[in-house]
């Protein structure tokens, strides 16, 4: 891309005018920067907390109204009956992760779901005790994996195997991951990676990792916190055993929003060990109140409790927008925004003379919306100055700025404005 073009506001506006998803921006509330005369912030942290869809308030108020009107009878008389409320998510979530509706369920929080799934899919036996993951997944994943290993009587120092990039590189090579899986072979119980690494923004080849894990006789699972609603997924066709994700990042469902889980249909039988709860019991017999657990023949069997309706209402409001936009169109725009941001950073670096090292893979098929950037020893100062100018982005220790333009609500003009601000700041630091 011509560096002069990305520095042109007219070019950015032309890209926005041609964007078939541009009207979705109006469906979100943008924070207002107090020092900018009521101006909206430039929001690049959808990889941490998505913006609030405007439909959320009405969605929550509907459930509050039904609660006040019906009381307990709202489980069956509410506009969206609470008893089956979680079932309203299956079709939408299945489209986002490309699964069968019976393979997905909205429930709990991300790490809770990770633990529940590891009960079923991390079952160390004999020599097969190790879990393979990337060196720096989100810390909660490391805590969960290590505690599961210890719970089974293992030693996390020995049984948790973390892959590190080659010397001088920031991201993992797929060939190295596949080679490590093959090397571990009969020692390996579970391969558990993030779909997209939270720090570098690298999108892993989940299909190849899954196939390699299965060849080694291990299970394959993924934390999709930074992948769901962001990158192409095909969990069913790839044969992934299990996956989980949060909904408050790219899925815009609010702080602490209800999470999701995927269990491949081949594991839906009653022989799979799992923790049991009332809402995982066969719904046809649920109110018989029997003492013997009879699991649902779907991912719903991993549910423990009834749906947190007030927490789920914002999730439904956001998923309605995903249904309207379609994942294919969102992925196309997301890649365009990411590429435009990449070229903008290159142009600003050339113009300012300040080195900006993008540690996210350059190939569009190896990343999602997020770009992670190292600024030559000045990252923290640059982050603070951008924040003062109304740019909301992430700082991650020790030296990375994370920027994630999201296709549902970010524009090419947002990126152009960011580039102008960044260029001016780099000229002064």
What do you see in this structure?
With 429 residues, this protein is α/β, with parallel strands linked by helices. It has two domains: 3-30 and 327-426, Aspartate Aminotransferase, domain 1 (Alpha-Beta Complex), CATH 3.90.1150.10; 60-325, Aspartate Aminotransferase, domain 2. 38% of the residues lie in helices and 13% in strands. It is built from 15 helices and 15 strands. The protein has helices at 3-6, 9-17, 56-70, 74-77, 90-97, 110-121, 139-151, 156-159, 174-184, 206-215, 235-238, 309-325, 327-352, 379-388, 412-426, and strands at 28-29, 42-43, 52-53, 104-106, 130-134, 160-163, 188-194, 219-223, 242-245, 260-263, 356-358, 371-375, 391-392, 394-396, 400-403. A seven-stranded mixed sheet has the order 4-10-9-8-7-5-6, sandwiched between helices. A four-stranded antiparallel sheet has the order 11-12-15-14, with helices on one face. Helix 5 (90-97) packs across helix 12 (309-325) and helix 9 runs parallel beside helix 10. The radius of gyration is 23 Å and the shape is globular.
